[in-house]
Sequence to fold (455 residues):
Amino acid sequence: MPLGAFRPTARELRDLTGLALPVAVVQMGLVSQGLVDTAMVGRVDAIELAAVTLGNLYFFGISVFGMGLLLALDPLVSQAFGAGDHDEIRVGIQRGLVLSLVLGLATTVPMALAGPVFRVLGQPAEVIPVAAGYSHALIAGMWPFYAFVVFRQVLQAVGRVAPIVWTIVLANLLNVFANWVLVFGNLGAPAMGAVGSGWATAISRWFMCLCVLGLTLRLLAPYLRRVHRDVLRWAPLWRMMRLGAPIGMHMFLEFGAFGAIGVMMGWLGTEAMAGHQVALNLAAFAFMIPLGISQAAAVLVGRAVGAGRPERARRCAGGAVVVCCVVMTATAGVFLGWPGQLAAAFSTQGEVVAVAAILIPVAGMFQLFDGLQVVCAGVLRGVADTLRPMIYNVLGFWLFGMPISLWLGFQRGAGPVGLWWGLAAGLGAVAVLLMWRMWNRLRGPLARYSTRVAH
Fold:
């Protein structure tokens, strides 16, 4: 198949950017909660900042598999929407909410055990009790967090993203206000530091769930009003989980690589860990742009597959790669041009700023690879290809990048920057493998994936 089959027309680029922009805004809004926590707690002291760092790493390490599992709704709902199959959409939403409840309950126990886990991981003794308190506060927001993911994925798949954007904007404003009250002890509240920030985040997650449901109740009510007779049938539920579990493992392993680096930073000291968090938050914020492109690509490719239009699926995939390259080149320029200024915006601690300032240029160097790997994974998710990306993730991050991190960071004595260069190598390897997989997968026949069909 010629390369021209992947060349997007103006329509594909317009559809892609029209969906990717609000989705990226939503993703940035989600990460902004962590940025707000970091920026506001960073005004307290380095211990409180390191505690938020460790608590956030632990939260995402515990929750990320469930987030990926629920992303099975991307191909299921978008393909069903493209095919006009509203019954499949209804049962998909209801199964997603069932899974969100199970996930919310299942993650409560490991979140409650945060303190002992931090001690086993050898984290700084002064950080552990504060980080454990922050993690415990987040427990209250676990189920609404997963339920919001369900509503978000469904609304994105059917092209209704404006309510999600409004929800995220309002939730971030609430999070800023709640942090101001609970972190610093304003309006008569006790000054709770990092723990108060955890409670502020939990409150904002409840608001996200209820607000997006309230704004879209007219649209979602027909899908929620009556329980589908097949919602708890094991065979189709298993097919949904079989599709989503590799996505969850993919995200867990990718986040696990960054989380492992965070743990190693703890071995290098509180300042190294806090500086790593500042740089990581900035990189994560920029990553939300290609993640938005990735989710838009999954939706548009899935709709095209559901509508029986493989040629449009290929053009949407090509458009996603083009847009990603343009955007991530720009973010790389920002990171390489102003590392010191960016670091200083998130901490007043000189040692923390110094560590972050040497890590941010490394993030600039891996921006393009980071964007391409997530966009290609989104395209493959749109055609319900989720197992191979997980395997490539293991090969790239854990068998290639992680040994390089350990060698440079500890054996060669490069410290924090050496650990990050290993991450850059892993991202490059995953990006190359997924580009190759996307090219080969989309050249072949593209068929709809349905939970009703047993293969």
